[in-house]
Known about the structure:
Oligomer: homodimer
CATH architecture of the largest domain in chain A: 3-Layer(aba) Sandwich
Distance between the termini of chain A: 39 Å
Number of domains of chain A: 2
CATH class of the largest domain in chain A: Alpha Beta
Number of helices of chain A: 12
Order of helices and strands of chain A: EHEHEHEHEHEEEHEHHHHHH
Amino acid sequence: MAEPLFKRLTIIGIGHIGASIAGALKLHPGTVAHLVISDASSTHLKRAEELELGDEYIASAAAAVQGADAVILCTPVGSFAAIAEAIAPYLVSGCILSDVGSTKRSVIRDVSPFIPKDVFFVPAHPMAGTEFSGPDAGVATLFEGRWCLLTPIDDNEEAAAKIETLWQTLGALPARIKAEHHDRVLAIVSHLPHLIAFIICGTADDLADETRDKVLQFAATGFRDFTRIAASDPVMWRDIFLNNKDALLEMLSRFCEDTQAMARAVRRGDANYIEDRINRSRKIRKNLIDIKQA
Amino acid sequence: MAEPLFKRLTIIGIGHIGASIAGALKLHPGTVAHLVISDASSTHLKRAEELELGDEYIASAAAAVQGADAVILCTPVGSFAAIAEAIAPYLVSGCILSDVGSTKRSVIRDVSPFIPKDVFFVPAHPMAGTEFSGPDAGVATLFEGRWCLLTPIDDNEEAAAKIETLWQTLGALPARIKAEHHDRVLAIVSHLPHLIAFIICGTADDLADETRDKVLQFAATGFRDFTRIAASDPVMWRDIFLNNKDALLEMLSRFCEDTQAMARAVRRGDANYIEDRINRSRKIRKNLIDIKQA
């Protein structure tokens, strides 16, 4: 039998992504010899055990990482600094520490200072997820055909290659990108769309009662799609917005300028401007379909 | 055999919605005895004939309505005034004229002046649709379980009841609402979400080349969903935005205020405000799921 990629892998945080990794590992037995699951929530940890997601369940992250040759942080990015500080003294020499956070500059800023010299930190971001949360939301096939962006920070090529192999095994497409570029791209393709979805749901909720009732009754395609995006985990998204502040505010500012221009076009009845913007959107959609990302 | 609801129904405009009505009528034979299809585009009309969507195909709208006891306008709302003017002299006494437009005050404003005294105008809006266009995009089951909003303008109860029966037969849920209220509700549940989707696609398209390439390569859930909404028909949406200008600009202005407040919260790191807004969105989503509109 082939050597496992990791002898002892610890997943910290058994929510939607952590549970999906655990599920995906079951589809690829032998990748990890022993899977340890840790979660600060006793409810989540108990549920993970009921679902038989791992081989061992340990509430304390510091205890859970002991002896592990790989650790993956799967909690909201706002918790990373405290967890890194807590687990750092217990990480064994040669251990690879990785994560699945949606922001990468903040993760490097928060985690790197605590990493012992003989531990390798490989920041990663599997670009997959649904609006559902918790251990029951794990989807074993979640990562198949989806990108996993790695933002390695130093010459830990061997460690980066092992994390790439892990994601490849789970069906993802690994790609490397600089952390700063990652954060700008994610700001526009994911963070801003989610922020806008949250905002417009609030705008609707603020309408006078009679109209608001009808909004719920007659929710049409556009709004329904926005509420679906907006149903995602609050703490996770709060942490993402606060930890990718610069890039997000830049994209938001560009978007607001474009919104003002569109409002002016609607007010003035500038049909050509409006049609041109709509046609550009369709072109982008067509490009996504062409490269099979639609 | 039961009497048909309409002896001769003319659909003007055989795009996504017109073709879906034609398809739905095939699922319910006997509802209409003779279906006439008209379209200013010879390509669309020829395609409708190839797809056998109707019983007769007439390019001229004026010719197509002759002898019809019901006519449904299924073109973009910006074309309604010209079509109403063109067909008015040929509408027979007792004919019911209806439409499927997504704006209702503008439709009443544009169509009513041309309606002969013995013709009944029943504005309607089936709240269904996908991002696809043209006669090939017809979906026979499109209206099943979806609302169809009627905004009758005078005491034409019998005519309104017949249009309600038609939509009920096609599987829709008819409901009556004042035109002004319709336009405000649609502005927030459909028109503003679409406008925002078009804007954010443009914002992404304006980014510097290196980032834009990565935007396409790594399009994540939020952005992908926005591009799907934004793939809808340009002329239809241009017309909707220009014909529901007041309500749309009011909702856009509320949305922009809320966006500024959110930007300030992100800049200041106001975690409570952000989390509160996200939780309100989730509540709306939950409400939609509870009333089965999600």
